[in-house]
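Cross-check.
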Amino acid sequence: MSAPAIVILGAGALATARRIQELYVARDAHAAPGSVVECQVHALQGRVEADVAYSELGAHLRELYARGTPIVALCAAGIVIRCLAPLLSNKGAEPPVLAVAEDGSAVVPLLGGLAGVNVMARDIAAALAVQPAITTSGELRFGTCVLNPPDGYALADLGQGKRFVSDLLAGESTRIEGDAPWLDDAQLPRSESARLAIRVTPRVWDGREDELVIHPRSVVAAVVVGDAGTEVDAADMIAARVRAALGTHGLAPLSLAALLAPAASMADPALAQAATLLDVPLRFADASADHGESSAAALLHAALRVPHETVHDAANFALALSPLAIDPLTLGRARGRLTVIGLGPGRAELMVPAARTALNEATDILGYDTYVKMAGPLRADQRVHGTDNREEMQRARHAFELASEGRSVVMVSSGDPGVFAMAAAVLEALEASQNDAWAAVELSIVPGVSAALATAAQAGAPLGHDFCMLSLSDNLKPWTIIETRLRHAAQADLVMAFYNPISRARPWQLDKALGIVREYRAPTTQVVLGRDIGRPGGTLRTLTLGELRAADVDMRTMVIVGSSLTRKFARGDNGAQWVYTPRWYE
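Predicted model, tokenized:
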């Protein structure tokens, strides 16, 4: 189960929220890498500082609920119910939702009885040293939710399960067939001669109403793919073949634990799509020569570390059945993933959601030390590889090495990773490597809000017409190239955004660049200086090209030089100015 979003309204709830967060942070530290999602405190913007800011409670709760995120709301239960009421429709699909008193004196499970809400309530209540307000009849009577089996097991039919529990509550007894250790301490009315039976089996439920059937995820399908038409057709064919084999052997689709394929096929999109269609993890293994390198059965033999029976064996497809549920994380390895993200200018709310999701799911995080710290808070179990800002290619190669081992890696940049940042270095390292293992890594680049865009937004819209971005650093290109580009951009009347404008090692270059620009731009040309925009202490200043001096700028300043049409006017607050470049041209 994912760690919850802990949602608070005011400062009075923060201490309790942190106590609940500590419970999940400690749990994360002992979990398998990548198997949990970071637990964060979400606070109403302007009232209290926490990990995530939101602007409106109802909309935020509904967004979390729609994403399937467990919710612990430190407020009145009625508030949560009214916020989520429009979304309540499918009891079997709702995430856990709890209301907790601000002072931690009450823990009330509200929604998600089939998703473990009462287990969460007991854990949180124990951490707060209070009794949870459990109201579910079955939980109160039997001490467990029979309809909520643990990870690795799946309920065959929710409707039948409800009828089964209703019969137990009415006085019937039950017997247990199969391995169900999580029920050992449950206070179930048991009898070997009972009419009702809880049956734990990978076999298809036959529809008998006197059985509660729970399927252990104990079946693995191995497939060796070849040319099978289009990507979608191939995925459909793989999924159909797995379903057909399960049916032939009387095995329930819910008993499937994973799809297994050769490591050499790691980048095949049909496999990923087939696993999605089957709703199981996709894992990879290398078969040894002793067992036939290309056979599906050999893959199963190499990857399965538990006793199993091969129930279906063809050259390119095999099905294995284990007597116990299989943890997919112990089966071969996942396809490695490298995600290059941009943090934006620095404020958490200006980071795009996809970047935060990548950080939450990462096992390893790489980047310049300063940027990695900005990416926090991070989980205790996540490995951080901070380096000096000048070690870009070494950092990129390290990222691929980690990802090729099956890890989920995030490369951190500030701003946008594709603008004078790590995305280009990552791609350069990949192209130069000619490494098949690196090429098989799932590589994605998540955009971010660049410094130029963040500064422009603060000022108004100085980039409202054609513009260009130029780095004034000559570390990776000759100064003569910079001068040529400056001259052409100035002559073309483009708005210009200067990155890396000045440093102690390059104190003269900004004045040189401005000298070139002044050959083509009037002294009255509008200039915007944004220093640390989006970070604490950020400042914005507007002035003219004639007024601008190199002493006004440092390495952390974004310089935007307007075109001949860029203009400004008073905002009406504290003498500040709006700066914009019209969309039309004279």
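The radius of gyration is 29 Å. Confidence is low (pLDDT under 50) at residues 32-37. Passed to J.P. for a second look.
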